[in-house]
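Q: Could you write out the predicted structure for this multi-component system? I'm mainly interested in how the pieces pack against one another.
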Amino acid sequence: MGERAFDEIMGAGGSARPELAELGRWLAETPQRELRQRQESAERTFRQLGITFAVYGESEASERIIPFDIVPRVFLADEWSRLSEGLVQRVEAINLFLDDIYGDRRILKDKVLPEDLILGNPQFRPEIAGIKPPHNVWAHICGIDLVRTGPDEFFVLEDNARTPSGVSYMLENREAMVRLCPELFAQFRVAAVDSYPDRLLETMRSVSPRGCGQNPNCVVLTPGHYNSAYYEHSFLADSMGVELVEAADLVVDDDIVYMRTIAGRVKVDVIYRRIDDDYLDPLVFRPDSSLGVPGLIAAYAAGNVAILNAPGNGIADDKAIYSYMPEIVRYYSGGEAKLPNVETFRCREPQALKYVLENLGELVVKLVDGSGGYGMLVGPTATKAEIEAFRAALVAEPQRYIAQPTLALSTVPTLADSGLAPRHVDFRPFVLTGSKGVQVVPGGLTRVALKEGSLVVNSSQGGGTKDSFVLMDNGLSQSQNLGNMTQVQG
Amino acid sequence: MLSRTASSLYWLGRYIERADFIARLVEATIRLDVLSTRSAGEAAWQSALAVTDTEAAFKASGARLTREEVARFLIRDPSHPGSIARCLDMARNNARAVRTALTREAWTAINSAWLIFDQRMTRLDPDSALALVDAVKAETRGFEGAIHRMLRNQTTSFIRLGQATERVDDTARLLDVKYHLLLPEGEPVGGTVDRDQWTTILQTVSAVTAYRWLYNEGLRPANVIDLLLSRAELPRSIAAAIEETIEMLNSLARRTGSHGEADRMARARMTRTAKTRTGEVIASGLHQHLQAIIAENDQLHTAIARQFKFH
C-alpha cells in the first residue's frame, strides 16, 4: 500500500481535479475550526434525533451514532452517467437471474454456472422455487457496493439484493450538509436525493398485486426497535407515510395478509420487509422463529401480496455467486458487464486455493456468508497469528472462502484529528426496480475508514459516512446556469 | 391504526406523565424536608415512598432511609421500575416503537428527557437533585407542547388518554400523601408544619395561585382537597383528568365508529364524581375514597386495553 491512492477530489496530485477546483478552494479556505464546529453540530443533531444504530453484542445503552464527515465526496456528471448504465445493466441481470434460478434454470442447463453452487447453496430457497412474484420483479431495492481505484476504474465489491441499509444516512447526511454548508449547494448543482422515499413508494405501489390504481396498502416490516437498523425502518415508513409493522401485527387468513388495527383487520398488499428470509414465515423457513408471520409465504404464492425484496434473493448476493457475476451479466444481457468485478479467487477451486494460500499476506479473504466486516482477513495489515489462523481455516473448509487482491481504494479528504487527510472510501448507490423498470437514485452512501491507511469502512468496525454529491453538470455553478435570474429581488 | 401502535402511544403518555409526577414528588419532598423549621426529614421521604407504593421495593434494594438514598432510588435507580430514569426509558422505548406516528418535535423532547440521564452523576445533594427534576419537568413540558402542535388525530388521542389515565392515579396518590405524612409529635393540626405540608401539595401541582383565585380564604385543608378532587378548572385535578379521559375516548369513538366498555365506565365515573361532596368525603375517610379511585382507575385501564386490542 505504499503508493498514494487516487483521491476523489485531489486527483493524483496536490491540487484539486480541474472540475472540482471550487471545492478545493473551499477546503483550503474554510478554517478547520469552522469545519469541525459544523461537523460537531451535525453529530449533535444526529444524537438528538436518535439517528443511531445498535452494535451487536453490546447493551442497549450503547446506541451509537455513525461518525459523520463534513467533506463530501463528489461524482462528476459523466462519471455518474457511466456508473448508472452499469448499475442498471447489473440489476436487470440480477433480476433475470433470480427469475431463471427459481423458474426454468436455463443458466444451469446451459452450463454457465455449476449446478451445486446454486442448488447446494444455503442461500438458495427451494421452498419458493416455482413461485412468481407479482410483475416478475425480484430485486426491488439493491445496494451495490462499489470501490474506485482510479479516474475510470470502478469495481463492484458486493451486490446487496436482500435488505440493503444506509439509505436513511444518504438522506440525513444531505440534510445536514444543506444546513451546515449551504455555500456548496450555491456553487455546485447537486442532484437532489430527497425524492427517494417517493420513488420507493412508487416502486412498491407499482408491484402491488392489485395494481396501482386500486390504492394498494403498503407497509414496512421491521424486526422491532432493538434491531440495529431500526432507525432506518421507521425513517422509511415515516417518509413514505405508510405503517411500520412488526410480524405480530400481521395475520394471514385464507391466504390474505391483514394487519391488526384498533378497528379490526385491514388488508395488506405490499410489504417492504426488513427481516431475513429465515425469519419470514415459521411455516416455511425456521420453525423456531417468533419474528415471522405464519402463512405469509402461502399468501405470497397465491399472488395476494408482494414482498420486497422477494424471498430467496440471498442467492444473488452470495459471495460465491458474486465471482460469476460477469458471466451472469453476459448471459442475460448479451453484452460485457459495464461494471467489472474485483478479481476474485474461489477457494473451492484447487488452483485458486493454492494461489491464495501462497499469497495470503497480500490478499483480502472473506467468508462467503459473512457480512459487516466480520470473518475477514486483510492480509497486508494482519498479524502473523491471524494469517496462520486463516490458513488453517482455509485448508479445513475452502468452499467457505473467497479471496481478492487488496485494492488501492480511492481516498477523499477527511477531517481527522490532525486536520484534513486522505481516507479510503467505498460507495453504495441504491437501485430501485418496479414494474416499469430500473432506476438509480443520484446519490448514495459513502462510507469512510476513519483510521489512517485502513480499508475497513463498516460502521460496526468504526467507519464513518460522508454525503455523496452527484453533479448535474461538470463543475458549473448554479448561478452561471440560472443566468440573470439570480437578480430578481433588486 | 395498528393496535400495537395505539398501545405504545397510550403507554408513552402514561410513562411521561409518571416521570413528571415523580419529579414533582421529589421536588415536594425536598421542600418539605429542607424548608421545615423542624426537620421532618425521614417522615417526608418515607411518605414519598408510601405515595408511590414502593416502601417494600425500597427496603428490598438494601438502601437506607436517608434523603440522598431515597432521592437516588426515586430519580435514577436503574433497578427500580418506578424511577424517573426507568420511566423515561420506557417512554422512549414506546416512542421508538411508534416513531412514525410522532412528529420530530415530540420525539426529540422525549429523547432529550432520556438523554438527561445519559451523563452519570455520583452525588445527589438537594441542589443537584432539584436541578435534575427541574430538567425533567422542563422536558416533559416540551413534550406536552409538542403534543399540542400535532394533528388532532388518533395518535394524540391515545397519548393524551394515557396521560389522563395516569394523572388520575398520580393526583389521587399525591392527595393521599397527607394520610401517610404524619405530623411530628406535638405539632397541632393546622399548625405551621401542617400548613407547610398542604402548601407543598399545592406547589406540586402548580396550584398555589389557582387556590387563591378559587377560594377567598386562607389555606384550609378542606379547600385543597376540594380543589384537587373536583375542580375541573385545575388541569391536574382528578375531575379534570376524568373529563379529559372521556373527551379522548369520545374522539376515538368518533374516528373508529364504536363505543365500548371503557366509554361506559368512564362516563359512570364522571357522574359519580360530579355527585361527590368534599365535606362528605372527608367525613367518611379521604384515604379510603382515594384508594377506591386508584382501584377504579386500574379497572378502567384494563377496559381500555381490551377495547383497543392492546397486546
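A: Regarding packing and overall arrangement: Chain A touches chain B through 22 residues (CB under 8 Å).
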